[in-house]
């Protein structure tokens, strides 16, 4: 791919990427959101909101101290296009979330008491639009990650008791969010301490929930989970039991990262 040319590349502190098919042109697009820290004086409140493309967003964006620059590349094009600067920062995700021809990320406002938000990027009209979060989630409970389960946008939250997976059954309809799965505390055998006297119930204190990833829902209905980049587990929501998977591929290292993708037979034109 061609390189992105910026005025001051050293000022960018990180970025998130997205990839998907534009349903109108049938061309693939790559999206990169690069962000850097700025002061509130650098980005006035009225400028921050008026510079957004698409419908007005919540007031939480105005207090952000992060300025992002958005670039998009149509596969086959020799150059990236700069879509402008926006006052937000997305949480980095290990797997992208593409639903209804839109890429999705979690956005965390800087304000301490504000809730996290879900933002989508439409690959057709190239606009950012906020996706409604469940009204029945308490404001102090945050989503840890977004996933796609059976084609539906889903959000994962957690506390000391385990994970909750909320599924948006009808896209962009706030009332369609339901709590589909509740997954209790579990420690895979490979991560259990050698001292068998320590119970797995107490082990949750050394296995933080942020080290657990929801990967996908299998055809059997089970939920595939990754623990600390070291263990794969299938959770059966009907029987509420966990099954450890043995990862014994030749040459695989102790730690690994699972990437969920959908196979496609579509040829990508690059010239």
Q: What's the topology here?
A:
Elements (H helix, E strand, L loop, with lengths): L13 E8 L6 E10 L7 H6 L15 E9 L6 E6 L10 E3 L2 E6 L9 E6 L5 E4 L11 E7 L2 E8 L2 E7 L8 E8 L27 E6 L5 E5 L3 E6 L4 E5 L26
Antiparallel strand pairs: 1-2, 2-3, 3-4, 5-6, 6-7, 7-8, 9-10, 10-11, 11-12, 13-14, 14-15, 15-16
Describe the structure.
By secondary structure, the chain is mainly beta. It has a domain of 95 residues. It is built from one helix and 16 strands. The strands form four sheets. A four-stranded antiparallel β-sheet has the order 1-2-3-4, with no helix packed on it. The longest helix is centred in the first third of the chain and has 6 residues. It is globular. The protein starts with 13 loop residues before the first strand and ends in a 26-residue tail after the last strand.
Globally, the shape reads globular
Q: Spatial order of the strands in the main sheet?
A: 1-2-3-4
User: What is the tally of beta strands?
Assistant: 16
* Distance linking N and C termini: 11 Å
InterPro entries: F-box-assoc_dom_typ3, F-box-assoc_interact_dom
Domain F-box associated beta-propeller type: 12-181
Protein name: F-box associated beta-propeller type 3 domain-containing protein
């Amino acid at each position: 791919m061609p390189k992105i040319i910026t005025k001051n590349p050293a000022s960018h502190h990180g970025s998130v990427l997205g990839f998907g098919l534009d349903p109108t042109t049938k061309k693939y697009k790559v999206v990169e959101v690069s962000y850097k820290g700025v002061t509130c004086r650098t980005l006035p409140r009225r400028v921050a909101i008026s510079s957004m493309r698409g419908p007005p967003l919540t007031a939480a964006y105005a207090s952000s101290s992060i300025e992002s620059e958005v670039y998009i590349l149509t596969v086959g094009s020799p150059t990236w296009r700069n879509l402008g600067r926006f006052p937000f920062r997305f949480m980095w995700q290990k797997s992208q979330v593409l639903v209804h021809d839109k890429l999705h990320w979690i956005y965390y406002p800087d304000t301490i008491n504000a809730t996290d938000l879900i933002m989508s990027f439409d690959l057709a009209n190239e606009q950012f639009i906020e996706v409604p979060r469940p009204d029945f989630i308490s404001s102090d409970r945050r989503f840890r990650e977004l996933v796609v389960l059976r084609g539906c946008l889903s959000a994962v939250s957690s506390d000391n008791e385990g994970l909750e997976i909320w599924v948006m059954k009808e896209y962009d309809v706030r009332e369609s969010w339901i709590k589909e799965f509740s997954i209790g505390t579990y420690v895979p055998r490979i991560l259990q301490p050698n001292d068998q006297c320590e119970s797995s119930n107490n082990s949750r204190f050394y296995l933080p929930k942020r080290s657990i990833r929801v990967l996908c829902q299998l055809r059997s209905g089970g939920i595939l989970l990754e623990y600390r980049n070291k263990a794969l587990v299938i959770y059966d929501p009907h029987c509420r039991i966990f099954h450890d998977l043995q990862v014994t591929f030749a040459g695989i290292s102790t730690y690994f990262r699972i990437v969920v993708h959908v196979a496609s037979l579509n040829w990508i034109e690059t010239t």
